[in-house]
Amino acid sequence: MENQISKSSAEENELEESSVTMLDVLEEEKEREEEYAAVLGGSDEKCCTYSEGAIKRQALYSCLTCCPESRNDLNKCAGVCLACSYQCHENHELIELYTKRNFRCDCPTERMAGNRCRLNANLKQPIALNENNIYNQNFQGLYCNCHRPYPDPETTVEEFMLQCVICEDWFHSHHLNASSNVTIKLMEACSEMICGPCMDKHAFLQDYTGLSLSLMEQSVENSEINGSICDDVRAGKDNDYDKLRNDLDKSISDIMNIGEAASSQTNTDEPKLKRQKLEETTEEQSTSKTQTGICRRPTLKSNYESGPTFWAADWRLNLCRCMNCMDMYKSDKVEFFLDNDDTAKSYEERGMRRAASESSAYEQGIQALASINRVQQIDAITEYNHMKDRLKEYLHTFVVSKKVVTEEDINRFFNEMRSERNATVGQPYFCR
């Protein structure tokens, strides 16, 4: 009896450990799905985006197989959309670029004349180049001001990188830290980052750095950076703009007073010509205020020091939208600052919402796990572990031989696994 109880307890323990293992597997799958949804969920995986023109933001890949010269020449680089990476560049050496702004797929163009786009077979190919596309060193597989690949084969430490919201290059955290003397906590707390060269190129941003997390850290240097820092930033923003709001109210009040003065002058002995001149002046001032608006760009200079800046999620809402500033954004080619859908966060949220409407593998796995008994759970977990071990051994042979794993190789593996399983089915069991 005791042996039976011990055996039952052992089976319970084995089941518990196995169940935890299976849940861990499902949890890992869930994390991968969420990451996939964030990066790729907002992009079309079935249709080439070339016909849609320059997409506001989409997942992109650089193909070094089709553009080998691009390793040494940025003018030879090319980017392809998610669908083309699947259908037209399978088994090619692709560099994942995360997302890029205002880019048109290069797959059907002359940049890839040697690889006909399968998703645009109806177009006369190759077609003209996308002249408005912008290419940086990321298309060559290089990043940061150190111009190293990611992941860096010569680095043994974990790499944390941030993307500049303007040039869209990626920078190592330790290089940003070295150049600006900021902490990792601040970099993790920020929603967007602008690198030092872009801050120098677009000098107007230096007027807004009093609202950035970069300077806020000076006042919270000895405290934890958490979600409340956004409230602190907004409070700082309000204080910084108090003077501007007062100036705006005073300007409006002055216009109203001038108008009232003009009306009251009609009953005086003042010459008619002088009254008309005053009315014309008032009208001109009022029209000027309506057309150009009051510039809300901060006039109080912050203690900005050359280097990257880190911003909270709503920092773009603080940008002035008067006509002069709007013209400046256009000349600097940063009009996207005013587009709420431009941010990478907005793109990722769209992908997450799209994925949320579909049943995930995690949910399906949990449902399947709950629908079978304990013996079947143990059998399923045993088969999974066996398959995982065999797959590791199989893939290791490709690592050793430095061969690319193709879809046919994976299909061959599972066909062999299926054949092994079928060979064991139907064999008689003899008990002695």
From TrEMBL:
<feature type="zinc finger region" description="UBR-type">
    <location>
        <begin position="46"/>
        <end position="122"/>
    </location>
</feature>
<dbReference type="InterPro" id="IPR011011">
    <property type="entry name" value="Znf_FYVE_PHD"/>
</dbReference>
<dbReference type="GO" id="GO:0005737">
    <property type="term" value="C:cytoplasm"/>
</dbReference>
<keyword id="KW-0863">Zinc-finger</keyword>
<dbReference type="GO" id="GO:0061630">
    <property type="term" value="F:ubiquitin protein ligase activity"/>
</dbReference>
<dbReference type="GO" id="GO:0008270">
    <property type="term" value="F:zinc ion binding"/>
</dbReference>
<feature type="region of interest" description="Disordered">
    <location>
        <begin position="259"/>
        <end position="294"/>
    </location>
</feature>
<feature type="region of interest" description="Disordered">
    <location>
        <begin position="1"/>
        <end position="29"/>
    </location>
</feature>
<keyword id="KW-0479">Metal-binding</keyword>
<dbReference type="InterPro" id="IPR013083">
    <property type="entry name" value="Znf_RING/FYVE/PHD"/>
</dbReference>
<dbReference type="Pfam" id="PF02207">
    <property type="entry name" value="zf-UBR"/>
</dbReference>
<dbReference type="InterPro" id="IPR040204">
    <property type="entry name" value="UBR7"/>
</dbReference>
<keyword id="KW-0862">Zinc</keyword>
<feature type="domain" description="UBR-type">
    <location>
        <begin position="46"/>
        <end position="122"/>
    </location>
</feature>
<dbReference type="InterPro" id="IPR047506">
    <property type="entry name" value="UBR7-like_UBR-box"/>
</dbReference>
<feature type="compositionally biased region" description="Basic and acidic residues">
    <location>
        <begin position="269"/>
        <end position="280"/>
    </location>
</feature>
<protein>
    <recommendedName>
        <fullName>UBR-type domain-containing protein</fullName>
    </recommendedName>
</protein>
<dbReference type="InterPro" id="IPR003126">
    <property type="entry name" value="Znf_UBR"/>
</dbReference>
